[in-house]
Amino acid sequence: MSQNTADKPPLIRLRDVQKKFATADGGLFEAVKSVTLEVRQGEIFGLIGKSGAGKSTLLRLINLLERPDAGEVHVAGRELTKLSRRELRDARQNIGMIFQQFNLLQNASVFDNVAFPLKIHGGLSRAQIDARVRECLALVGLSDKLGSYPAQLSGGQKQRVAIARALAPRPQVLLCDEPTSALDSETTRSLLETLRDIQQKTGVTIVIVTHELSVVEVLCSEVAIVEGGRIAEQFSLHGPRVERRTVLGQELEALRERTEREARWSAASSSNAAAAAQELHHV
Ligand SMILES: Nc1ncnc2c1ncn2[C@@H]1O[C@H](COP(=O)(O)OP(=O)(O)OP(=O)(O)O)[C@@H](O)[C@H]1O
């Protein structure tokens, strides 16, 4: 579903958003400088940049965890900065989020962690909650961990519980803030596969912040490169490889080229192996 999103309408629209923070010396630091950004429905959209570039702040502006000093935040047709507290709480039901450090409730079982957002918003029977929790845990491959506690799980499993919890209220948007930074490379690979699989099964729109090029290359359909609080460059990862303006853009294209070359090489070597096997068979 993330493959052909070019004709889909934008589900998230940031217009001229700005965010400043007070600094220790009494000044102001502009973490996000008038950014305009659109994320289409069904996209897996990467925000990549160096530490301090403003990626996390930009992500947190999408669900108003950070309120912009100026600009508009539209998600699924609603301008979030205009909503009352109560309306915003409802609108946030449509925007799940996961974090680098998982943020699970340590004293609650896996079941209760995933059930939590369903219970606090009410409206569902116990049987409905039970069914939805099981469905979400199946989606992340943790059906057998219902009764476990976070301390009994690996980092990858904890992040899967966090994903199940974020998806439980059936959000249209899933925000991911460095979701694999605390994980080793193999666990990262399998978690990214799970995220892609979930996107395809549910159609959820994913925005992911990372500083790892390989995460963007493996997962994303579109990428924005964030530098100094601005979008320095944005492009599709399914489009042709062309010369990019930013160093990160160039590195990402080099990575794409290497992956394509390796895929060609391994296809060629397996067809050579097949041809050799056939020859042997005929001898
Ligand atoms: N609550 C805050 N108060 C003060 N300054 C902040 C706050 N949040 C972020 N900043 C500053 O804003 C800038 C951008 O931070 P942000 O976390 O968005 O960057 P980032 O690109 O996600 O970096 P990292 O990968 O290191 O998290 C940084 O200089 C940071 O110190």
TrEMBL record:
Ranges of compositional bias, category Low complexity: 265-283
Keyword Translocase found: yes
UniProt-listed Pfam families: ABC_tran
GO-annotated molecular function: ATP binding; ATP hydrolysis activity
GO cellular component: plasma membrane
Swiss-Prot/TrEMBL GO biological process terms: amino acid transport
ABC transporter domain segment(s): 12-253
InterPro entries, A to Z: AAA+_ATPase, ABC_transporter-like_ATP-bd, ABC_transporter-like_CS, MetN_ABC_transporter-like, P-loop_NTPase
Disordered as annotated region, ranges: 263-283
Alphabetically ordered keywords of this record: Amino-acid transport, ATP-binding, Cell membrane, Membrane, Nucleotide-binding, Translocase, Transport
Keyword ATP-binding: yes
Family named by the database record: Belongs to the ABC transporter superfamily.
Function: Part of the ABC transporter FtsEX involved in cellular division. Important for assembly or stability of the septal ring.
PANTHER family, alphabetized: AMINO ACID IMPORT ATP-BINDING PROTEIN, METHIONINE IMPORT ATP-BINDING PROTEIN METN
Protein's recorded name: Cell division ATP-binding protein FtsE
Organism, as annotated: Comamonas antarctica
